[in-house]
Structure formats: structure tokens, C-alpha cells
Design a protein that fits this description.
Elements: H1 3-28, H2 38-51, H3 74-111, H4 117-131, H5 140-156, H6 162-175, H7 183-200, H8 205-209, H9 215-232, H10 238-250, H11 257-262, H12 281-296, H13 303-318, H14 323-340, H15 343-346, H16 354-380, E1 383-386, E2 391-394, H17 406-415, E3 419-423, H18 428-435, E4 439-441, H19 447-462, H20 467-477, E5 479-485, H21 493-501, E6 505-511, E7 514-519, H22 525-531, H23 545-548, H24 556-567, H25 571-584, H26 589-601, H27 605-618, H28 622-634, H29 638-651, H30 656-668, H31 672-684, H32 690-717
Parallel strand pairs: 3-4, 3-5
Antiparallel strand pairs: 1-2, 5-7, 6-7
Helix pairs in contact: 1-3, 1-4, 1-16, 2-3, 2-18, 3-5, 4-12, 4-14, 5-6, 5-7, 5-14, 6-9, 7-9, 7-13, 12-14, 13-14, 24-25, 24-26, 25-26, 26-27, 26-28, 27-28, 28-29, 28-30, 29-30, 30-31, 30-32, 31-32
Length: about 725
């Protein structure tokens, strides 16, 4: 067959692969609504639409009410409110798919080459794999679209007269949609800098000439930059609004590091622990592949592409949420460098005939299409059991029934309860979206508004159960309720116990998704009298096993309730919940773990051992293995305990309980040197615990003292 035939066949398969890619983009961006902050955006969109202005102060919280607030996302908030009001939550999901699809369409325009269709598909597919972590209907998706549009116009249309007007207009919209709007002027500044370097700094000739602008284009960029700075000021807070996100960005250090520690999306994507794992593997692959593209194209490097690549690589390494911006930059770099990389430079000479090249490309495109179809089929099967309907809920379209404490909030809505509430960080935005203004929250997702000191005090209450810190807020902000979310996280035991210990507070709601406490105020007393929960006489709500049939279900609601009850020392009630869970799924390890914890508290170590053993078999998690080791130890089966502690250290080499548990058991078995060696090893790793060290020395010295006494006794007998 002729070379022309193979070329046309390659192009046809290329377009098929591109079409399939866009189907996958649309499908994968149609996930159910899971984002927490969306609810705050919806509420603020309603507020702005109803009042006709953007407030310059907080109107949502009871702790920072009236504090100055620069709401740089107001335009997004109004948009999502109007879309949701007109088309419901599925309309919001469709909006997201439209924005994401437009982003990929402009990326395709930016890098498309008929000769390299397969490379565009591979690169865009990798971008999609990184981007799908941000399919959450947040203003970020618009920032990514605007970022791509900027690169598209600056790369391909900067010589057009309309380009300046388009970018200035885009900048105004961006400045009122998301705080990353300063990326627009940054990209133009990088373009000006790179052009200056090409013209004024001695570099290899190809570097000076590759991607060099005309004098007219260079002049346009220098005119555009100050116009964009002014465009950033076109917002409700003018200069303050333009400077605020930049100020926040450069203040993310010092005391603000606390946010990076506790908020997942602000943590670093690559650490010493995960650098060689599969975590974020597409992001890591883009780093490697885009870097290699510079290596292959080292003689004709485009300086502007190199600067953008380096800046956004550094930006992405700072926080997980920034990875997609680097993915876009890496795609641009790959497409730019691919122009100068010849097929003959990559493959051996005798494989570089046109027919072989087209055949190879066709095979690659077929493999890509098969992979995408398989990935889409796997995604389509994602779903979970809906305990309300006894049916399956798809993970596409609709609102998630796993992420939000919707039943607990339904209780507040149904009973029309009002007040200032303490709440966990993850519940703040959801509460704002559903019960504001009746309930004013303690904290929500606007970390920059609350500040590091406030967040630190919140952590003292939430993680440590610090009653003194809470009581200060209780008096100052008139806190009359507490909403503790247990839907997608565990309530820290210290916080749960703290509220339960307050004599003037009472539980009015307890279920798998959370606990609600009300303070005994005159307003709250009717609710307390009607809904007060007696945890010691708690009766589980069993599932209808006839209706459930043989469906495989994870009975987490029972275990969530059991966890709360066990934490509050309502152990019999917790046992009943755990047994209901095992009636639904006899292999559910978390239920055995709850039972084992209760039996351990009661010093019934044989029963604890039986349940920890099953928990370790079915879950294999660290608490279950440690619990099993401890049960072995209490039953004086030191060989079994040593094996389990060693198992812990093989999986978690820096686990302090593993080291000192192992040392304790070795000491009890008379292997003193090995026990002391384990202590020394723990010290070298910085895991020293003075209390545990003293216990082990006491075991060793106690045995020696016993031996000495026995020797003296036998001497007297003689």
C-alpha cells in the first residue's frame, strides 16, 4: 500500500483518538458533587444576588463577623448560584464539563500537529489524569481555563490587534473570579523578560532566535503589561482587591505553615516518603517527560517556555492543588519542543522510513484508544450503596451521599434550630450553604480570613479537646451549639469527650454522620427536652436484611455510631452497633476492632485477642496489628507479640509503639541485650520515649532483683 494510504490512515486514527479523548474528558468531569467549599459559594452567590452588592466584611461566621473580607471570587459565586437555581446540581456538573472541555479544546489548538496527533493525545491524557483531582466545581476550573487562554493568545495571536483587548477583558473577569488572576500579568512579564534576555544577553544562537518576537509584538507586550495591572484593579475592592491574593500568596510561610500541615490540598505532592511510589504518578511522569524534551531539544530551547516551565514546576511542588497548572505548562513545553525534535533523532535510522513511521503511529493510537475505553468502562462502574434507598448510587451526577453530614444538617433544618455553633473545619462551608443565617459557623474554608492564630486555637479545641480555649470563644462569641462531623472523618476523641463532659451541654443528635450538642439555654431547652439522647440506653436501627438480600455492603454507619458510643464510654451500646455491622458484613474488620477496644478496656484480653486477630486479618491496618500485639503481650504469649511488633516495624519503620512494644516483650523474655538494642535504635531515629524507656529498664532491673532475692533465699536454706 502507498505511503499516502498509511498517512491518511494514521490521521484518521489520530482524529478517532482525539474524539475518544474528549468523550473521556466530558465523562470524567461529570462526577457527583463532592466539594465542600461549593456550598459556601452558593450561599454567597445568593447573598450577593439578593442584596445587590459584594460585602466588604464577613457575613457568615460568628467568630469573625464584621471583619474586613476581600471576596475575590464573587463572580464565580453569583454564576454557580444562578446555574444551580435554573438547572439544579446537575446543571453545575454540566457547567464544569463545559469549562473543562473548552480548556482541553484550546490546549489541543495550542499544540495540534497533523504529524504528531498521537503526541497531543498522550500529553493531553496525562494532563487529564492530573486535572481530574480538581473536578470539584470550584473557581479553580475557571482559572485553569483562563490560564490556557492566556498561553493560547500569547503564543499564537499576540500579533493581532484584538489580542490586547481580549486579554484585558479576560483579566477583568479573572480578577473577579479567582485569586490566581495574577498569573495573567505573570505570564506577560515572563514573555517580556524572555524577549529581553534573547535580545540583550549572550546565549547560544538558536536560543536567541527560537520563538523570538518581532519588534511590534515586543512593543505590544510592554503596552499590555501595565494595562493588565490596571485591569486587576477592576473589582469591588479596587487596589486592595488586586493586591490581596498576592499578599496571601507570599504570606504562606511562618505561622501560616499550619494550614499546609492540616489541609490536604495545601500539602506537597512529592515528599521523601512518596517520591518513588505510584502517588501522583502522572504528575511525576510529566515532570520527567517535559524535562527530557528540553534535553532532546537543548540546541533550540525557547527561553520563555523554559521560564514558564521552571516557575510553575516550583509552584506545583509547593502544594497539591497547583499540580494542574504545571501539567498545562508541561504540555505546552512538550508541544513546543516536539516541533524541533525529528523522528530520525529518536529512532534508529533503519526504522525511519515513512511507512514504518505511520504504522508505528497507528499502533500507538490504537493502544491509546483501547486504554481510554478501558479506563472509561472502569470509571463507569464506580458507585456505592445508598443506605436510604437500599440501591446503588453512581459516582456520576447528583450530590454525594458519602461526603456530607446531610442527615445531621437535615435535623437542624427540620427543627429550625438557631444559634452560633462550634463546628469542624470540613463542615463549615456545608453548614453555611444549608443553614445560614439560622446557624452561624465557628470556622469555614476561608483560611486566609481566619488566620493562622485562629486556626491554631481551633486545632486545640478540635484535636486536643482544650476546654479552656473553647470556653474563651464560648463567652466571647456566645456559642450555643456544636456540630461535630463524623461522615468522612473520625471526630477526635478528646473533642468528643470535652463536649460530653460539659454539664450544661446535651446531645440532641447522634448518628453515623455526626453528633450535635446544644447548650442548656432557655432557647435550646425545648429541643433538649424533646431530642436529648441517652447513650447508655441506645438502641441500634438494624438494616432490613430481607430487603438487603445478598448485596455486598460496607456497614460503616453502624461502626461510625459504635465509634462515637465507645469514645463516650457507652460500651454496651457500642457493642450492639458493632454486632449489627457484623450481621450485615461478617468480614468487616472495623467492627471487630471496636469490640476488641472495648474488651481491652475491660481487661478481657482473650476476647480482645480474638477480635483483634479478626480485625488484623480483614483490615491489616496499624491499630489492629498493634492491638493484636498488645493482646498477645497481656496474655503472656511473648513470641506472638514479638512477631506482631516486628510486622508493624516492617510496614512502618518509624513506629514508636512498635519499637518499645518489641523491646518490652524482649525484656520480659529475658533477652535484655536485644531489648536495650531496640531502645538504642529508637533513640537513633529520634523516637525516644522516657516513660517507655523507664518501663523497660524497670522490667530488666525487676528480674535481676528477683534473681538476687532467690539466690539469697537458697543461701539461707543451705
Amino acid at each position: 500500500m502507498s505511503e499516502r494510504f498509511w498517512r491518511h490512515l494514521s490521521v484518521t486514527f489520530g482524529w478517532l483518538a482525539i474524539g475518544l479523548l474528549f468523550c473521556l474528558v466530558t465523562f470524567s468531569s461529570s462526577l457527583e458533587i463532592k466539594d465542600l467549599d461549593l456550598w459556601l459559594h452558593l450561599r454567597m452567590g445568593w447573598w450577593i444576588w439578593q442584596h445587590g452588592f459584594v460585602p466588604h466584611y464577613d457575613v457568615l461566621s460568628c467568630t469573625i463577623a464584621g471583619k474586613p473580607w476581600v471576596n475575590h471570587e464573587w463572580l464565580f459565586q453569583v454564576l454557580v448560584y444562578l446555574v444551580q437555581r435554573a438547572y439544579g446540581f446537575n446543571g453545575l456538573i454540566s457547567m464544569q464539563s463545559l469549562v473543562v472541555g473548552a480548556t482541553f479544546l484550546f490546549l489541543l489548538f495550542l499544540g495540534y500537529s497533523r504529524e504528531r496527533q498521537w503526541l497531543s493525545v498522550v500529553s493531553l491524557l496525562m494532563v487529564l489524569m492530573v486535572y481530574q483531582t480538581r473536578f470539584t466545581i470550584r473557581p479553580d476550573i475557571f482559572s485553569i481555563l483562563f490560564f490556557v487562554l492566556y498561553i493560547y493568545v500569547l503564543s499564537l495571536h499576540i500579533n493581532k490587534r484584538w489580542a490586547l483587548y481580549a486579554l484585558v477583558g479576560l483579566q477583568i473577569i479573572w480578577a473577579n473570579t479567582h485569586g490566581f488572576f495574577f498569573f495573567g500579568p505573570l505570564l506577560v512579564a515572563v514573555a517580556i523578560l524572555s524577549e529581553f534576555l534573547k535580545r540583550r544577553v549572550p546565549m547560544p544562537y538558536e536560543w536567541n532566535t527560537t520563538g523570538r518576537l518581532t519588534d511590534g509584538e515586543y512593543r505590544s507586550l510592554k503596552i499590555l503589561f501595565p494595562l493588565l495591572i490596571l485591569a486587576c484593579c477592576v473589582n469591588p475592592d479596587t487596589f486592595k482587591g488586586a493586591w490581596y491574593p498576592v499578599k496571601v500568596f507570599f504570606s504562606l510561610s511562618g505561622s501560616n505553615k499550619i494550614f499546609f500541615k492540616h489541609i490536604v490540598e495545601l500539602q506537597r505532592p512529592i515528599t521523601a516518603q512518596n517520591i518513588f511510589t505510584n502517588m501522583w504518578m502522572y504528575y511525576k511522569a510529566l515532570i520527567v517527560v517535559s524535562f527530557l524534551s528540553f534535553v532532546f531539544n537543548r540546541r533550540k530551547i525557547d527561553v520563555s517556555s523554559l521560564l514558564v516551565w521552571a516557575i510553575f514546576l516550583a509552584f506545583s511542588l509547593a502544594a497539591i492543588r497547583n499540580m494542574v497548572f504545571f501539567a498545562v505548562a508541561a504540555y505546552m513545553v512538550l508541544m513546543v519542543n516536539a516541533i524541533s525534535i525529528s523522528w530520525k533523532n529518536v529512532v534508529p535510522l533503519h526504522f525511519s522510513s515513512p511507512k514504518f513511521k505511520y504504522l508505528t503511529v497507528i499502533i500507538i493510537e490504537i493502544i491509546l484508544m483501547l486504554w481510554m475505553m478501558n479506563f472509561g468502562i472502569q470509571m463507569s462502574s464506580n458507585g456505592y450503596f445508598d443506605f436510604d434507598t437500599y440501591g446503588r448510587k453512581s459516582e456520576f451526577f447528583g450530590v454525594s451521599k458519602r461526603v456530607y453530614p446531610y442527615e445531621a444538617v437535615n435535623f437542624l433544618v427540620a427543627q429550625k434550630i438557631k444559634g452560633n455553633f462550634f463546628n469542624d473545619f470540613n463542615s463549615g462551608a456545608y453548614l453555611v450553604g444549608r443553614v445560614d443565617p439560622a446557624v452561624k459557623v465557628f470556622i469555614d474554608g476561608r483560611t486566609e480570613e481566619y488566620g493562622a492564630k485562629f486556626f491554631e486555637n481551633y486545632q486545640k479545641i478540635w484535636m486536643q479537646g482544650n476546654a479552656k480555649v473553647f470556653e474563651q470563644f464560648e463567652r466571647k462569641d456566645n456559642i450555643t451549639g456544636a456540630f461535630l462531623n463524623n461522615a468522612h472523618q473520625e471526630i477526635p476523641p478528646a473533642c468528643l469527650k470535652m463536649f460530653h463532659s460539659f454539664k450544661d451541654w446535651s446531645i440532641v443528635y447522634l448518628d453515623y454522620d455526626g453528633v450535635i450538642f446544644l447548650k442548656k439555654t432557655p432557647y435550646n431547652m425545648p429541643f433538649i427536652r424533646k431530642f436529648s439522647v441517652d447513650i447508655h440506653h441506645w438502641v441500634p436501627k438494624p438494616m432490613n436484611l430481607y430487603k438487603l438480600g445478598t448485596k455486598l455492603v460496607t456497614p460503616f454507619p453502624f461502626v461510625n455510631r459504635a465509634y462515637i458510643l465507645e469514645t463516650l464510654d457507652a460500651d454496651e451500646a457500642a457493642i450492639r452497633e458493632a454486632r449489627e455491622a457484623l450481621a450485615v458484613a461478617p468480614d468487616y474488620g472495623q467492627a471487630y476492632h471496636i469490640l476488641a477496644k472495648i474488651y481491652t478496656k475491660r481487661h478481657e484480653y482473650k476476647k480482645a485477642f480474638v477480635n483483634y486477630r479478626l480485625a488484623a486479618i480483614y483490615t491489616g491496618d496499624l491499630p489492629s496489628i498493634l492491638g493484636l500485639a498488645h493482646a498477645y503481650e497481656e496474655l503472656k504469649h511473648y513470641d506472638g507479640a514479638i512477631d506482631e511488633y516486628r510486622r508493624v516495624l516492617s510496614i512502618f519503620p518509624r513506629n514508636i509503639e512498635g519499637y518499645f512494644g518489641l523491646a518490652r516483650c524482649l525484656a520480659k523474655e529475658g533477652k535484655d541485650k536485644k531489648a536495650l538494642a531496640m531502645i538504642d535504635k529508637a533513640k537513633k531515629l529520634g523516637l525516644e520515649d522516657k516513660v517507655d524507656v523507664q518501663k523497660i529498664h524497670d522490667i530488666i532491673n525487676g528480674k535481676k532483683k528477683k534473681v538476687f532475692i532467690n539466690k539469697q533465699y537458697f543461701k539461707r536454706r543451705k
